[in-house]
Design goal:
By secondary structure, the protein is an alpha/beta fold. It is 45% helix and 7% strand. It is built from 13 helices and 7 strands. The strands form 2 sheets. It has a 4-stranded mixed β-sheet, covered by helices on one side.
Length: 412
């Protein structure tokens, strides 16, 4: 998925703007024992992370002042590549399947983000459809979640332009990905979109008044710009200023919180246990693609990097590959970490690799079968994307209308 947005957000620098603790309001209806407050982080400053929020902790009629349960809203998405890998699936999509049963969910393919760097125009639409089919094949239920294409909801681009007027250029200049990619490509080959796409990322989230955004443990900073921008726009245009223009007053945008999955948020490369699994890696041997045939999966696991330590173990910093492969086995087998540690502690690599290969093939086979069914039914896929865009547009247009009003535009 290249740079996956929302579930794989833009990496911000440590010098990204900070949120004041007084600006973050407590979310009602949640009381999770696994909520952790990062008080000592140099970039958090009151930034709360909701980790492993269970369905039982959702607001219910019994503990709510009203008799109607209002679901919290989650948005997330990935770039279209047509080749979703195991890291994308275990780190994001697999978690979405559980989330759609508890929250109001919107999952989309961020095709507008895919053009910030040179791309193949002939492949973009195909990759977009393929990615949508993979979403559904993995278990995203169109009757529970809105699945759509980013460019099919025009409000994304409109809100981006409005937010751009309130985004200090210094915030964007500090972005790590912009620095890294512009350095590699050279200034003459870098488009303005590479610098400004974090603003589009923010519009993707804020359009839908999201309560939570699923992000990996290493990606909390990705959301920080969005939160800071929401606070800034609320301050500049919200409250009494908005009310004087005929609006409802108060906050224009809800400030979203990060939802950190309890496991699987960071799957590493098969050729380097210190690097995240990525489509941009030069070698295809570094990743397991969800649509890889059985023999390809077996070959990649057979050739993947290991170490010379005896036995197998979790959480040894000197054994990143070992920890990664055991974690992958845990996730695709559905076993607990304790059970995997006990099962594998007496194994060597020669006996563990076939075990991991079989578990991967067994887990991915139903996804591959379902993908072929969905991909071959164009009418069904089109109808899902059309309905998803319609539902998303209803929410997005309402938000956009408020922003235009609060910023003083004359509307038709």
């Amino acid at each position: 998925m290249g740079r996956a947005i929302l579930s794989h957000f833009l990496i911000l620098s440590n010098s990204a703007p900070l949120l004041s603790s007084s600006s973050i309001s407590k979310l009602n209806g949640f009381a999770s024992k696994s909520v952790r407050i990062r008080q000592n982080s140099k970039y958090s400053n009151g930034f709360r992370c909701y980790c492993d929020v269970s369905p039982s902790q959702q607001t219910s009629p019994e503990n709510s002042p009203t008799s109607v349960t209002v679901k919290k809203r989650i948005v997330s998405g990935v770039q279209p590549t047509g080749s979703v890998h195991l890291g994308n699936y275990l780190g994001a999509i697999k978690n979405w399947i559980d989330l759609q049963n508890t929250y109001e969910t919107l999952f989309f393919i961020v095709d507008l983000h895919a053009i910030t760097l040179p791309y193949d125009t002939k492949e973009l639409s195909k990759a977009t459809r393929d990615t949508a089919a993979i979403y559904l094949a993995c278990g995203i239920d169109a009757s529970k979640a809105s699945v759509f294409v980013q460019s099919h909801v025009h409000a994304h681009v409109e809100l981006m332009w409005l937010l751009s007027s309130a985004t200090p250029i210094g915030w964007l200049n500090r972005m790590i990905q912009f620095k890294e990619k512009s350095r590699k490509a050279g200034d003459e080959n870098v488009g303005v979109a590479l610098l400004t796409y974090p603003v589009l990322m923010a519009s993707d989230i804020l359009l839908y008044q999201s309560d939570f955004v699923p992000v990996g443990e290493d990606q909390k900073q990705h959301l920080e710009l969005t939160r800071e921008l929401a606070e800034r726009v609320n301050y500049l245009y919200g409250g009494r200023k908005w009310k004087k223009l005929g609006g409802r007053g108060g906050s224009i945008f809800k400030v979203p919180e990060p939802l950190i999955p309890p496991a699987g948020a960071r799957v590493m490369s098969l050729t380097d246990g210190l690097s995240k699994m990525s489509k941009s890696a030069p070698s295809d041997q570094s990743r397991i693609n969800l649509l890889d045939p059985k023999d390809v999966i077996a070959n990649k696991i057979k050739r993947c990097k290991t170490d010379s330590f005896p036995a197998l173990e979790f959480d040894n910093p000197e054994r990143p590959e070992c920890n990664n492969l055991l974690s992958v086995y845990q996730l695709v087998s559905g076993k607990t970490k304790e059970d995997v540690a006990k099962e594998c502690q007496g194994l060597n690599w020669g006996s563990f690799k076939p075990l991991l290969t079989d578990a991967l093939i067994e887990h991915l086979y139903p996804i591959q079968v379902r993908y072929e069914e969905i991909h071959s039914d164009s009418a069904y896929l089109d109808s899902v994307l059309e309905e998803g865009a319609r539902k998303a547009s209803e929410i997005a247009d309402a938000t956009l209308k408020n922003v235009y009003q609060a910023m003083g535009f004359l509307r038709r």
